[in-house]
Amino acid sequence: MVGESQTAGQGDEAAAQHPLLRALAGRFGARVLGTHAWRGDVSAVIEAGALLEVARFLRDGGEAGFDMLLDVTAVDYLGRAPRFEVVYHLVATTSGARIRLKVPLDGAEPALPSLVSVWPGANWLERETFDMYGIRFEAHPDLRRIYLYDEFEGHPLRKDYPKQKRQPLIGPGSRAESGSTR
Amino acid sequence: MAARVTQVDREAVRRSTGALGVAATLRGLRVTSRHFIRNLWGWMVGKPQVRTVMVPEEEDPKPAAFRGMPVLVALDSGKERCVACGLCEWACPVDCIHIEPGETVDEVERYPRVFDIDMGRCMYCGLCEEACPEEAIVMSARVDISAFSRAGLLWHKDQLLTPASQLARRLAYIREDYGRR
Amino acid sequence: MNRKVIEAGRDVLDLPSDALELKLGPSHPATHGTVRILLQLDGERIRKAEVEVGYLHRGFEKECESGQYYQVFPYTDRLNYVSPMINNVGYALACEKLFDLKTPERCQFLRVIASEASRIADHLTCLGACSLELGAFTAFLYAVEARESAWDILDAMCGARVTTNYVRIGGLSHDTDPSFPELARHKLADVARLQKDFEDLLLGNPIFRERMEGTGMLPAPELIALGVTGPVLRAAGVPYDLRRLAPYLVYDRLDFDVPVGGAGDNMDRFLVRTEEIRQSARMIEQCLARLPGGPVDIDDPLIRLPGKGKVFGRMEELIGQFKVVTEGPKPPPGEVYFAVEGGTGELGFYLVSDGTGKPVKCRARSPSFSNTQALSRMVEGSLLADVIPTFDMINMIGGECDR
């Protein structure tokens, strides 16, 4: 994995020392695929199947109490397998402790469980990730595009989506609607 | 030296309303009357206190660091300083600069045969000026780019060339930073 | 009228009624910002509110991924366009975390001044627009005049009020003038004078209080679960302020208060912001008093462009200039997340690098986006008129929310 192997060596020793990452690795065993700490940021790479359990553990189980989900996004490492990585940033509002969760996903039909049941704030963030990367969040209450319109073709933040690509015009005044040749 | 957490004072707001809001109304009248009299007096003695500037009849004061549209610096001979190295084209985040280099018999050997800036795309960020190793492209104080068509927003070399004397203020400003690093 | 007629009348009027659907926006005079709120009304009461964003989506991340690290700065201006300097600073600090740099003292102080002046402008815009949309036009003019003074501070630093593009990786684009501290103090006095008038005019006003008090409330745990940060969360009594919790730049050396509210209604949000303006002014004054001399840029020709004086005369610096512009500074491979306290909440940047000059991923965690998400929960069950002050106090900035 690019993200992991790149930071390997620099971050692994620090990660082994970190109590939270140790607790995660101890509790979830092989379902935590890797941990690293780099530049003061603590990350854990976990399996998609373990995501909900890990999220609940981080919110309720541990000492830190990560009560806020700050951000959900994805990274497209085109040309490597697994292609996508969904990234979550959590913070504990009382202590200011932070952790990053990463879930590697295959490129064909990327899907993983939704975290709306754990943090309701995940709703729009997951919709945005779906909009931009086409990653499906299972059991999401309302998985629609959020920034772009429904007729938009493709997912623009994927690396194989050309920056200059044009989209067909829709709505009143478009060629399909009015029949004119603009 | 630290941050303290304090509580906002809602009680003071409640008190300041007064019975039936009379105190708040009177205070509001005092504030607006003071502003009115101050502005009226300023207008009467010819020293307006309001910040409105009657553009374009009046000149809008601009700070020394102001960035208007990028222009090309012309030498005294009327030729450009630019040697068509293309660094500004590289640095431009929105790709609004288009350069086609040509060769010349002058000592600089290269010159821009075509130098176009699409003012419809330019966002006046000034990265071209920072990248330029020749002090050839600088941000002028001009902002009047309006045109009747998109083609009118494409500025060519002859339109962009500006005598250095007209850019003296900006050149002096960027030269201040030359020795700093 | 006899009893029978009245009863018959009631029968006629007591029709089964569907909810009235009202589309507020995307361009509505009472909502600053391009957003659409689909409301289902039962009389004056809101049954359901659905917020639609995305009208200002410009592909911030795609643009950033296609350019060098230093080319992102002009785009960050356009995220939260009422406090652009904070975005500049946030992105620069994220890059510096990735590159592992430490900027000189003077640069850090100037960055704090820039951030706090921007915060003043941000809050004044929010409060002024709120008063305007509740009908207090004069108060709006005072707030905007005060904002003009705050922008004059930024103007003197970088030459622009909105499209600042001032901060660079490892420094600032220019140092300030020797006359800057005096000008900044003078402008802060202007802000304080107008802010007092603004508050005198507005705060005690019974109409204003009726509209603000007890509206738009959500309990703090729910706000936290929804990811709400900034003055909205602090108004509910949670002292989550990154300047206090995880001080960056020189905030740990400054003396300031973090105002929090109790009830978490719109009045508290308003009061938290007015107090934060005063605290920001206090911080700027401390920074001006202690502003050290020295350089504003790090001395590393591979990251910060060498001075033009050297570029004109020396070959090595000229080559350095070409390398930095065409290839850009190259960070080590890895990923970082860095957050600053923006005008509306936690503004974070998540950068992923593969060792080349272009970011693989440049993500802005925008506070407006998460805050706007909470709007529907805040207004459901309340009256239609409460949507306006609640939306104003959330302070959704389209450019930041939609990126």
Describe this structure in words.
The complex is a heterotrimer of chains A (182), B (181) and C (403). Chain A has a single domain (2-178), classed as NADH:ubiquinone oxidoreductase Nqo5 subunit (Beta Polymerase, domain 2, 2-Layer Sandwich), CATH 3.30.460.80. Helix content of chain A is 27%, strand content 24%. Chain A contains 6 helices and 7 strands; from the N terminus they run αααββαββββαβα. Chain A has helices at 2-7, 12-17, 19-28, 51-61, 122-133, 175-178, and strands at residues 32-38, 41-46, 68-76, 84-91, 98-105, 111-113, 136-138. The model of chain B has no long low-confidence stretch (mean pLDDT 84). Chain B is 30% helix and 19% strand. By secondary structure, chain B is of the alpha+beta class. In chain B, 25% of the residues are buried. In chain B, the strands form 2 sheets. Chain B has a 3-stranded mixed beta sheet with strand order 5-2-7. In chain B, strands 3-4-6 form a 3-stranded antiparallel beta sheet. Chain C has one domain (51-402): Cytochrome-c3 Hydrogenase, chain B (Orthogonal Bundle). Chain C has helices at residues 3-13, 60-65, 73-77, 84-99, 105-133, 137-158, 180-202, 206-212, 220-225, 231-235, 242-245, 266-290, 308-313, 315-327, 367-373, 375-379, 387-394, 398-402, and strands at 20-24, 36-42, 45-52, 167-168, 171-172, 256-260, 334-341, 346-353, 361-365. The chains are: A alpha/beta (182), B alpha+beta (181), C alpha+beta (403).
Short description:
The complex is a heterotrimer of chains A (182), B (181) and C (403). Chain A is an alpha/beta fold. Chain A has helices at residues 2-7, 12-17, 19-28, 51-61, 122-133, 175-178, and strands at residues 32-38, 41-46, 68-76, 84-91, 98-105, 111-113, 136-138.
Mean pLDDT of chain B: 84
Fold-level CATH name of chain C: Cytochrome-c3 Hydrogenase, chain B
Overall CATH architecture of chain C: Orthogonal Bundle
Number of helices of chain C: 18
Order of helices and strands of chain C: HEEEHHHHHEEHHHHHEHHHEEEHHHH
Please name the CATH architecture of the largest domain in chain B.
Answer: 2-Layer Sandwich
Structure characteristics:
heterotrimer; A: 182 residues; alpha/beta; five-stranded mixed sheet; 6 helices; 24% strand; disordered N terminus; disordered C terminus; C: 403 residues; alpha+beta; Cytochrome-c3 Hydrogenase, chain B; three-stranded antiparallel sheet
